[in-house]
């Protein structure tokens, strides 16, 4: 059975689905957060400037780029923000995913206004799901484009300026992605893919050494799947070692296995946090989403009686909270890195479901990042047919959703 058929039958049968939202991109990429469709089919353009150590051109394999204004000074971070402390119990950061570098075909600078609006609304976290091809030379994977990397620097500076924690995530990494097209190499099996993966994160670690983990964290790779826990743990340990060789203090986060849904107990002793997902049941969050075959699913309700099973807040707790509380009890911090609901689900259903999720995460002490700020899952420009939007600086604001998010 192919993935599309499997996902569709699982979601209809249980209302849960077995794959996270981003896994759906393996079929048809979703809205890139600005309207239209993401089409991650084009690698970043080749880089013709000479190697110059990452300062004003491209970087060499052995010299990760410096910060926008030169090498970041090797200063000791505030001990209160040390990575091991944060990794054991993450702050309850709340915010959004921003998609400017979600794929190489639509590689744009991040917008300061997004950070400003989040801060004004009371949010303090942004996850940047990024495609490594945005800054990596297609012909030489060990040459990085300094111009693009300075745009990442800029996002981190926006975070500092507006009091928003920035979480860098490789949504597409060398050898692995949930999006289309698939990577040519296999991160879980190919030594070269692992070498490039380690290089990417070591370059970021060196570049941002000295920025406190209270302001910046690394999310290794989006939603690992089709890999057993011991194999994934081996790759994760190797890349964390590469990061710590450059920056021992950096806060590192691992997504859960099975597209972010299952905690990785094999990493409990590594001193990193873990990120879960909030898309269950898929029949609610992805109704009529073509990339998961949701066009013919039954119209969702919330709570939802499906045969003998009742999908409600109690069901969410048992299925999605308890396994991750067991991980947290072992001294691992937990955060919800992605969650949200596609714009075809009736808005009253969306809000009831969202409030149950938010209430559970508040009780658990977990933060979250909505997918996305602008776009078909977000609170700006979501193009929902049953929402009376409010004009907000030229954008269409879902005021009811914003007010709900701010309450939690």
Short characterization:
With 408 residues, the chain is an alpha/beta fold. It is 32% helix and 14% strand.
How do the helices and strands follow one another from N- to C-terminus?
A: HHEHEHEEHEHEHEHEEHEHEEEH
The biggest beta sheet reads: 8 strands, parallel, barrel
Assess the beta-strand content as a share of residues.
5-15%
Radius of gyration, in Å, reads: 20 Å
What is the number of independent domains?
A: 1
Q: Please tell me the overall pLDDT.
A: 85
Strand adjacency order, main sheet: 1-2-3-5-6-7-10-11
> Which blocks of ≥5 consecutive residues have pLDDT under 50?
1-81
CATH topology: TIM Barrel
* CATH second-level architecture: Alpha-Beta Barrel
Indicate the CATH class: Alpha Beta
- The CATH superfamily is known as Glycosidases
SS elements, strand count? 13
Decide which structural class fits the backbone. alpha/beta
Helix content: 25-40%
Describe this structure in words.
This protein has 408 residues and is of the alpha/beta class. The protein has a single domain, classed as Alpha-Beta Barrel (TIM Barrel), CATH 3.20.20.80. The protein is built from eleven helices and 13 strands. An eight-stranded parallel barrel has the order 1-2-3-5-6-7-10-11. β8 and β9 (309-311) form a beta hairpin. α10 packs parallel to α11 (399-407). The longest helix is centred in the middle third of the chain and has 18 residues, at 229-246. The chain is globular and about 50 Å long. The protein starts with a helix and ends with a helix. Residues 1-81 have low confidence and may be disordered.
């Amino acid at each position: 059975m192919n993935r599309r058929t499997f996902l569709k039958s699982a979601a209809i049968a249980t209302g849960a689905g077995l794959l996270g939202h981003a896994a759906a991109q393996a079929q048809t990429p979703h809205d890139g957060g600005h309207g239209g469709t993401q089409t991650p089919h084009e690698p970043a353009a080749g880089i013709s400037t000479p190697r110059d150590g990452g300062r004003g051109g491209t970087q060499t394999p052995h010299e990760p780029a410096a910060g926008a204004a030169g090498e970041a000074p090797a200063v000791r971070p505030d001990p209160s923000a040390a990575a091991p402390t944060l990794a054991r119990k993450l702050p309850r950061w709340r915010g959004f995913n921003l998609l400017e570098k979600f794929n190489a075909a639509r590689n744009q600078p991040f917008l300061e206004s997004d950070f400003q609006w989040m801060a004004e609304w009371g949010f303090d976290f942004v996850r940047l799901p990024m495609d490594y091809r945005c800054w990596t030379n297609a012909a030489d994977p060990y040459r990085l484009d300094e111009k693009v990397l300075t745009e990442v620097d800029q996002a981190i500076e926006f975070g500092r300026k507006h009091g928003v924690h920035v979480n860098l995530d490789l949504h597409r990494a060398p050898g692995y992605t949930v999006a289309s097209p698939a990577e040519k190499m296999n991160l879980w099996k190919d030594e070269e893919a692992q070498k490039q993966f380690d290089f990417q994160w070591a370059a970021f670690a060196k570049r941002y050494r000295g920025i406190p983990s209270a302001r910046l964290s690394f999310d290794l790779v989006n939603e690992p799947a089709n890999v057993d826990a011991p194999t994934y743990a081996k790759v994760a340990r190797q890349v964390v070692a590469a990061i710590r060789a450059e920056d021992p203090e950096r806060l590192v986060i691992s997504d859960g296995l099975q597209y972010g849904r299952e905690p990785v107990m094999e990493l409990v002793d590594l001193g990193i946090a873990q990120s879960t997902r909030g898309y269950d049941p898929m029949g609610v969050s992805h109704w009529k989403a073509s990339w998961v075959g949701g066009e013919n699913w039954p119209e969702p309700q919330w709570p939802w009686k499906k045969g003998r099973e009742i999908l409600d807040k109690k069901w969410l707790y048992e299925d999605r909270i308890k396994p991750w509380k067991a991980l947290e009890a072992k001294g691992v911090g937990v955060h919800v890195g992605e969650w949200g609901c596609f714009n075809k689900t009736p808005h009253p259903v969306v809000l009831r479901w969202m409030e149950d999720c938010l209430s559970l995460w508040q009780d658990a002490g977990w933060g979250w990042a909505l997918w996305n700020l602008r776009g078909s899952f977000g609170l700006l420009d979501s193009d929902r047919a049953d929402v009376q939007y409010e004009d907000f600086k030229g954008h269409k604001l879902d005021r009811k959703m914003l007010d709900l998010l701010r309450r939690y």
